[in-house]
Design goal:
heterodimer; A: four-stranded antiparallel sheet; 5 helices; B: 2 strands; disordered N terminus
Chain lengths: ~400, ~180
């Protein structure tokens, strides 16, 4: 093996670091950042942070917390009676974002809607907001102790606290994404023998060490379970197409749209439409370097992000030439409508539909009102699941 | 449906005119943003995380600016705040959701067509090796080799003993050297 001198190493590293530091696709310019910070400073979150920085305020808060402890029982009772927060976007499991006011708030797992303190993972709500599916795995501490090993998918009813096991996942792998159909009768998820913590040095508590296997994962399948009679339908797929993004959604006619990474082609991400009755798989939108999207809550329209093909069309990704775009189409890809044409070097991802289907949130762009094309910028760089109105 | 430009910045749903933006805050951000963004980019896994880290860091710094008594130390002070935010955000992204669904997972970057011959493989190897480092290791490499801080200043910024920083640098360099040797081979 060629020996690299210290001088050559430093020279190469400095050059590499300067190049790598310039990979800033999607980052706003300084002026936009200043406006973003100014907006945040004026927001309730900014006011809260400034107020909390004062020592006397901290002392007062401790006292208030003690007094508030008495009210916890009352609050818990209110939650059990079905009080539901309205219209928050779940940015992370513990952080909610109100798109109307642009403010953030801490949030209990499952959006504060559960009568029990459900400690769940990969939560997805039904369209009516009355039940959710989530992934559970061995070792989680919480009020729900399944006592099972391995991964499993559960349904939780917010109004009755009823908990139902939907699927026990492969012992040497896991399940990803649970998603209700439009009529909430079916739940779809992805099942695989790939373990996401395989070979990881520091898996989360309870996961334990998962050694690297000699052979790569061999299977993944899209599964749908009928919540009424428990029957199961599935479509097997090869590992040449792997689930690479959390976008799963149902069409009104009962097909499932899933964002996938097609094989070893790197950056490409695409959408595939699975018919669970026939096993047919189609690609409603075929665009380079890919298209990622979701079906609307009514199951009739896909919103997807893709990139305008530059004039050269030579298959080389050049962020300064590729312009992100937001499109709508029917679920079979027909009737495409351009909604928003971005700027070069911007990077959009994660179109999330508002529960009423009138708006779409896109990371890197903001919330776009589909009827008018107006865009409201988000003060966060990411978007998450948008809880349905109660 | 018409294609519309993004014409207006909004605050809480209300139009926010650019003239209302605090001029002092804007000057503060403009002065430091580009440098901090590039520094954070070396620690974070993508530009979105780097932007979040810089935004959070600048917000903190702006609120606490009166606590900085020595203006000469402003750069190191800002570096400290943003680097620690970048590490925190990067570690947070290593949660299960991000590990499974991060779009950057398994991404093979497509190099520019005009990259010098022979350099593509080397950059790919270096990038893979650099991104396999821990956020703390990337931080000390970025602060020392990119931002030009001394080892002692780097230790001060990341809040670790000098020996720890030296150890992180040594381990990082060994891994990056190995990647280079593999690429040159």
């Amino acid at each position: 093996m060629t020996q690299i001198t210290d001088e050559r190493l430093d020279l190469e590293l400095v050059g590499f670091l300067h190049n790598h530091a310039e990979e800033l696709y999607g980052a706003p310019d300084a002026g936009a950042m200043a406006r973003r910070i100014a907006g945040s400073e004026r927001s309730i979150r900014g006011l809260f942070a400034r107020t909390l920085a004062r020592p006397m305020v901290r002392v007062a808060i401790v006292g208030m917390l003690l007094a508030a402890a008495i009210g916890v029982t009352v609050l818990a009772g209110a939650l059990r009676s079905g009080t539901i927060r309205n219209g928050l976007m779940v940015v992370s499991p513990e952080l909610g974002f109100d798109p109307e006011t642009g403010t953030y708030s801490s949030m209990e797992y499952c959006g504060g809607r559960c009568a029990d303190a459900v400690y769940a993972f990969l939560i997805s709500w039904s369209r009516d907001g009355r039940q959710m599916v989530f992934v559970d795995w061995n070792g989680l501490d919480g009020d729900i102790q399944t006592g099972r090993t391995g991964w499993s998918i559960w349904r939780y009813r917010a109004d009755s606290s009823e908990l139902t096991l939907i699927n026990e996942c492969p012992a040497d792998g896991g399940c990803f994404v649970g998603e209700f159909s439009v009529d909430s009768r079916f739940v779809a998820f992805v099942e695989t023998d790939w373990h996401p913590f395989e070979g990881t040095k520091d898996p989360p508590p309870g996961i334990g060490s998962v050694p690297n296997r000699a052979q790569p994962p061999t299977t993944w399948r899209l599964v749908a379970v009928d919540l009424v009679d428990g029957t199961r339908r599935q479509v097997e797929a090869s590992t040449k197409v792997v689930p690479g993004a959390p976008h799963m959604s149902w069409t009104a006619d009962g097909r499932v749209l899933l964002a996938t990474q097609p094989g070893p082609s790197g950056f490409q991400v695409g959408m595939q439409l699975f018919d669970l009755d026939t096993g047919d798989v189609s690609e409603p939108v075929r665009r380079w370097p890919g298209a990622v999207g979701r079906v609307s809550p009514d199951g009739l329209t896909i919103a997807y992000v893709t990139y305008e093909r530059p004039p050269r069309g030579d298959g080389i990704w050049r962020p300064e030439e590729h312009v992100p775009e937001l499109w709508l189409s029917d679920v079979d890809g027909s009737n495409p409508r351009l909604v928003y044409h971005g700027d070069p070097r911007e990077f959009y991802s994660g179109p999330i539909w508002s529960p009423d289907g009138t708006q779409v949130a896109v990371a890197g762009l903001g919330i776009i009102e589909l009827a008018t094309g107006n865009v409201r910028e988000l003060s966060s760089g990411s978007v998450g699941d948008w809880l349905p109105a109660s | 449906m018409a294609v519309r430009d993004r014409t207006i910045e909004q605050d809480g749903g209300r139009p926010m005119a650019a003239a209302h933006v605090d001029a002092a805050l804007e000057a503060f951000v403009v002065e430091h943003y580009d440098r901090l963004l590039r520094l954070a980019r070396l620690i974070c896994r993508d530009a979105v995380d780097a932007t979040d880290a810089v935004q959070a860091g600048l917000e903190q710094a702006w609120r606490r600016r009166s606590s900085l008594r020595d203006p000469e130390r402003r750069r190191a002070w800002l570096d400290r705040i943003v680097v620690r935010e970048a590490i925190r955000i990067t570690r947070r992204r290593r949660t299960m959701v991000q590990r499974i669904f991060g779009l950057d997972q398994g991404v093979e970057w497509i190099e520019p067509a005009d990259a010098p011959a022979g350099s593509v493989e080397l950059r790919i190897e270096l990038r893979a090796a650099f991104e396999s480092l821990s956020p703390e290791q990337r931080a000390v490499v970025a602060l020392h080799l990119y931002a030009g801080h001394s080892v002692a200043a780097t230790a001060d910024i990341v809040g670790a003993p000098v020996e720890t920083v030296r150890s992180r640098l040594r381990l990082a360099r060994e891994r990056l050297r190995h990647a280079l040797e593999e690429a040159v081979e």
